[in-house]
């Protein structure tokens, strides 16, 4: 949540030799001047956006949900592909974006996207993949099943905002 970084430097034997932690803090000087890190990019387009988030990892789900809420989105979070499809079946037309972890057990994000696209148009709801994968071909796989965007983990506020805005802009008028 503090958008910091952590590095571990191994020794030649593979053991942890040193650890570096970088965290952003707000600095308050006694002179009454506040130096505050700039906030996320303008997110007026994201404010009020109805998002369903599907991620099987509880920590990732919580962090991603909090980031989406910080952007002004209304978020429903589920922990599996089956729960996502069930929620879409009851309120599918109310969600504007589906944010899917593509590596969930039982039913992964690719399968969920294919099932959604089988019964819905390519632009409603928009589907954005979440992945920790560094594979170059992930984006091509996402496009093949009808996804509209891709956010790589670890999820950062600015990157998430930029990708969601890009997806929304690219699909206006579809």
Automatic annotation (TrEMBL):
Q: Which InterPro entries match?
A: CheY-like_superfamily, Sig_transdc_resp-reg_receiver
Pfam families referenced in this protein's UniProt entry, alphabetically: Response_reg
The entry lists its GO molecular-function terms as: ATP binding; ethylene binding; ethylene receptor activity; kinase activity; metal ion binding
CDD domains, per this entry?
Answer: REC_ETR-like (cd19933)
Give residue ranges for domain Response regulatory. Answer: 50-168
* Keyword line: Phosphoprotein, Receptor
One cellular-component annotation, GO: endoplasmic reticulum
Q: For the modification 4-aspartylphosphate, which residues carry it? A: 101
- Tell me which PANTHER family the record gives: ETHYLENE RECEPTOR 2 (PTHR24423:SF633), TWO-COMPONENT SENSOR HISTIDINE KINASE (PTHR24423)
**What protein name applies here?**
Ethylene receptor
């Amino acid at each position: 949540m503090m958008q910091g970084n952590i590095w571990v430097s191994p020794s030649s034997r593979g053991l942890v030799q040193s650890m570096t932690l970088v965290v952003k803090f707000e600095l308050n000087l006694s002179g009454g001047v506040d130096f505050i890190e700039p906030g996320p990019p303008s997110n007026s387009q994201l404010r009020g956006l109805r998002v369903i988030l599907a991620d099987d990892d509880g920590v990732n789900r919580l962090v991603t949900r909090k980031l989406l809420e910080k952007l002004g989105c209304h978020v429903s979070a589920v922990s599996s592909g089956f729960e996502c499809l069930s929620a879409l079946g009851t309120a599918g037309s109310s969600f504007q974006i589906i944010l899917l972890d593509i590596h969930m057990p039982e039913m992964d994000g690719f399968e969920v996207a294919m099932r959604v696209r089988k019964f819905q148009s390519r632009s409603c709801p928009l589907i954005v993949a979440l992945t920790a994968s560094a594979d170059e071909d992930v984006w091509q796989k996402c496009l093949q099943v009808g996804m509209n965007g891709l956010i790589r983990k670890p999820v950062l506020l600015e990157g998430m905002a930029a990708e969601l805005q890009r997806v929304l802009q690219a699909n206006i008028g579809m």
